[in-house]
Amino acid sequence: MTKKENVILVANEASTELGFKVAERMWVPFTEMIGKRFADGERYHAFPQSISGKDLVIVGVTHDDSSQQELLDLITGARYWNAASINVVIPFLGYSTMERAKPNSHEIPKGITRTRQIFRARPDFVAFIDLHSEAVLHAHGGEVSTKHVWTDDLVIEKIRKSGLQNYVLVSPDYGFSKRIARLASILNCPHTAADKDRYDTDKTIVGQVSSAVRGKTVIICDDMIRTGGSILQTATRCLEAGAKEVVAHATHLVMAGDSMKKFREGPISRVMGSDTYPGRESDDLLDVYSVAPLIAEVIERHLQI
Length: 305
Hints:
It contains eight helices and 15 strands. By secondary structure, it is an alpha/beta fold. The protein has two domains: 4-149 and 293-303, Rossmann fold (3-Layer(aba) Sandwich), CATH 3.40.50.2020; 152-274, Rossmann fold (3-Layer(aba) Sandwich). The strands form four sheets. The protein has a six-stranded parallel beta sheet with strand order 9-8-12-13-14-15. The protein is globular and about 60 Å long. Mean pLDDT is 93; it is low at 197-202.
């Protein structure tokens, strides 16, 4: 059993704000890394105190190349300075939709290869939040303890407190429908899925939606919103099928490119989601809650503190 006095919690730069929230929930100090950037672009990192013999917790998104490399540096640095254990929580895993290569495409499945880089840095434990595919959990040789953390309880709490009534959960495709069914059973509400086809990397066509949405408030649920194209199409189809209102929920609010503009001009009145992706805060469109309580619980259970 680990004592809280032996735990040091740090984060890569992009996850600093979330790291502070997690530390607050755990009643442990947040240890901010010492960092500098040299004129030639090289980056300097230092732990501000000794981590030798300590249980190090690293909160780190890998949403861009810089954050991925910084997380690797923190893990390998912790190994260099003899941390007793290295425990990593990745709120959002970059390239998570690239978990397999198409036959004869010669493409690099970076969801797997980049996760493998993390595992090869030799952390003791890695937890991922709401993965697009669990395939990445097995991108190691058995030497790393991994955990896929579902946000179901937070999602259910958010929907129950949203003030929405007479709602139906809708999956933008059949691939996510099992999780939607699980959430709907707990919320005691109906659910259905849209008929979606993908014809390019970031392009989809949503054909139709069940009449189960007629006269109801629709909550379109997905694991992430990247460009939002399929969710916006699904919302349009729901309104065409007689829905009264459409809101959306996604754990990871990537909102790439001009997607925020598209959502503000589109058929969705509100987007609920978490703070796993850096920089996402509540505003006139987004209704953001924190995964910090969930991360704190995962760490406390793993370290038995």
